[in-house]
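Hi,

I'm pasting everything inline rather than attaching a file, because the server keeps stripping attachments. The sequence lines come first, and each chain or strand is labelled.
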Amino acid sequence: MSKENSIGKTDKKYYSFAAPPNELVLESGEKLGPVKIAYETYGQLNKDKSNAILVEHAFSGDAHAAGYHEGDDKPGWWDDLIGPDKALDTKKYFIICSNIIGGCKGSTGPSSINPVTGKPYALDFPIVTVADMVKVQKYLIDHLGIKKLLSVIGGSMGGMQVLQWVASYPESVLSAIPIATTLKHSPQQIAFDEVGRQAVIADPAWLNGNYYDFGQPERGLAVARMIGHITYMSDRSMEEKFSRKLKEKSKNLKFTSDFEVEGYLKYRGDTFVKRFDANSYLYITKAMDYFDLSGDKLIPRKKKPGIRFLVIAFKSDWLYPAYQAQEIVKLLKARNVNTTYCEIDSTYGHDAFLVEIEKESHLIKHFLRSVSGENGEEYEYSI
Amino acid sequence: MSKENSIGKTDKKYYSFAAPPNELVLESGEKLGPVKIAYETYGQLNKDKSNAILVEHAFSGDAHAAGYHEGDDKPGWWDDLIGPDKALDTKKYFIICSNIIGGCKGSTGPSSINPVTGKPYALDFPIVTVADMVKVQKYLIDHLGIKKLLSVIGGSMGGMQVLQWVASYPESVLSAIPIATTLKHSPQQIAFDEVGRQAVIADPAWLNGNYYDFGQPERGLAVARMIGHITYMSDRSMEEKFSRKLKEKSKNLKFTSDFEVEGYLKYRGDTFVKRFDANSYLYITKAMDYFDLSGDKLIPRKKKPGIRFLVIAFKSDWLYPAYQAQEIVKLLKARNVNTTYCEIDSTYGHDAFLVEIEKESHLIKHFLRSVSGENGEEYEYSI
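And the predicted assembly:
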């Protein structure tokens, strides 16, 4: 979409809290403080503060979900979904997106300065969980004076946070839109994360996490990211994008990239190390692997929260396969939660949640209208 | 199966040829010599030399396909399939298995001594292709006095060599059994190989391939192997084997393995570096990625070789998905080649070709009987 439909210039804001001796108590029992949270908001909060939607970012995302930062030509990561007249319509809704704790895009994480030592936390940073990420967001929402969110929405790890909001603060959420996500990682998902971590840890430049004075463990982190990118695409989308096309290359060099797909992965790996902290990579993937809201943990038995769900999955997503979304839906239906499920026909694999904007917009727009009471009757979705 | 049904004690043999100035000319035009080939044989070659079956090993396999080496309790890698009264019945057939060129299990490869320098070849070893692997096997078969193989059989990269035999020496093969394989790697398969290679190359201990005096690039190679093992199993077989079970561990250590699946991958990576050469890893994965017998390359148009095919795939194999086997079958049917296709229902993923012995045995046994003219009529397979 063009820049004209954009929310325009946006700014990163910060909220700090939990200064010692009132540190934040994490799920592990460890304490952390002060905590700084980077966030952005789009649109206007209405008088009764009932139009707020929290957007949750995925693994390597950040608070910059929409609009443009000064001097930057690249819009936020979900700009096609957030803006005037878009699915998350900034004329109607007040959109909030914050960077997760443990991250490296403005919120407190392993690369932040530990006030006790005056140096980056590195591995002294406590283990954080998805519940901790959401707990910190609750502080932010309270700070903004919002009692109840109209909706929480996000894909991939963003979807885990959506589910965690329902588990942790069921009274503070009117509706939830988890996309391309799961109640818990399968061993295969854990395995992919673990290989990425091992690639980082195997890099001698990692220095047991204390690399901040010397530069990132770039090679290991790049390999980790390359693995990630394979899992984000489908076999078919790779075929459509690269086929077996060869790159131009010097014939004399062995084991340089021959195929276009190799060059693409290398490029993705190399750019990632410039923007993402290796220790954050370890902490956040661990948080995903520990995440588990199966059984009674999402919604306690005999309790039916007044929450409505729109659950979205993508047919070619093999990293978070549709059967995992169906498990969420089964669990919700068993608790009599008002749930709509849609499996979008896409060839983009896991990336689809960032790409299939038109199909997602259609679903989200109508779902939010219905949640806000704008629709006269229930809307049935089919794609 | 028990040791009693085994072929018993076996020995590795060697065949050397192509001594300078009569070096082997490789597909690239480069020359290599002398070439040494490690191989094993089981059973007896009959008088008219018509009962020979060539077994092709997969990526990290070797010539030791069956029986036991002196002092070793572990049988060869396909011992359940090869032996008296087994599918590859050593009472009837003469079985040959050789280590591929470029490998590190006795045949000439990058870790072999370069006669020109007196040091290991390292990256001075020429690029070898699957066609080169098969060409070397043809030398061995000629050396053994065999004009025509009763069958060529193998899974994964072994299956590529099977197809290559048909392409390179159609007159020397009576039947072919490619299992869990493809006419060419998809971009996704190339991508997984490339990430493995990058993990090796990223390890500073790789030293541009010149690590032989200092020890293997163990960390990078272990990460590469971990990636491989994820692709060899299915989502479901991992779920059945590990679920989300936790390992016992020291609570104080961050980023050690928590989940059993992590420990398994770590173990697999760590044992691999003790038995496999890192440069061989690079050369052999490249050979797989370059392999391409699509179009007219397997069987030239207007030419129908008198070869019979049994093509086997496994339903849960997502590394070499069944659609790739079906592409082989389509191509063969279009050339009017007598072809039987079977998709075995298995949850083991790509590993299935090493695990689903009973189902494979059933198919292979009857197919070979039919090829040898032992069956009165055509046998139709269904599982």
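The first helix of chain B runs from residue 130 to 143.

If the labels don't parse on your end, tell me and I'll reformat.
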